[in-house]
Amino acid sequence: MANNPFNIGRNGRMVLIWNGSRVDLPTITQFQSQQVTTALKSTPLNDKPKTFEVPNGWSGSFQVQRDSAKLDNLIASSEAAFWSAATITSGTIYFYADETDGSTTTWEYTDVAITLNNAGSWQNDNIVTQGVNFTASQRVKIS
């Protein structure tokens, strides 16, 4: 296998596990995440100010090409669970990054909450893309 000099968008894959079930979204067209922190500031009388960044979860988004109703069904079942029994569902995201040396790094995002921020724009002769925002408690390196 030839090594690539840098990562390109085709080097990543994502799997979503929701309430213990795998939700296959075959055509993920974008994935991004960022660490969330809380700034704690100290202003001592006898020293310069100090700031400490405390980890406070992760957030991000992903886009999928609408190949089926799987994402719509997931959102609908989460809404139904809330309105029928006040149950709030959560899941896990696994993100796989193919590294330039040929290895794969796996990241697990835990206690994920999602929002369907774009259910899709339906128009003639165009691909329907859906967008999701997410928050997670933590990102853990699996491998």
> What count of domains describes the coordinates?
1
Mean pLDDT: 92
CATH fold node name? Pnp Oxidase, Chain A
Helix content: 10-25%
CATH architecture assignment? Roll
Commentary on this structure:
The protein is mainly β. The chain has a single domain (11-37, 52-141), classed as Pnp Oxidase, Chain A. The protein has one helix and eight strands. It has one helix at residues 70-85, and strands spanning 12-18, 21-23, 28-42, 50-65, 91-98, 104-118, 129-136, 138-141. A hairpin with a 7-residue loop joins strand 3 and strand 4 (50-65). The protein is globular and about 65 Å long. The two termini are 20 Å apart. The model has no long low-confidence stretch (mean pLDDT 92).
Topology (SSEs and partners):
Blueprint: E1 12-18, E2 21-23, E3 28-42, E4 50-65, H1 70-85, E5 91-98, E6 104-118, E7 129-136, E8 138-141
Antiparallel strand pairs: 1-2, 1-5, 3-4, 4-7, 5-6, 6-7, 6-8
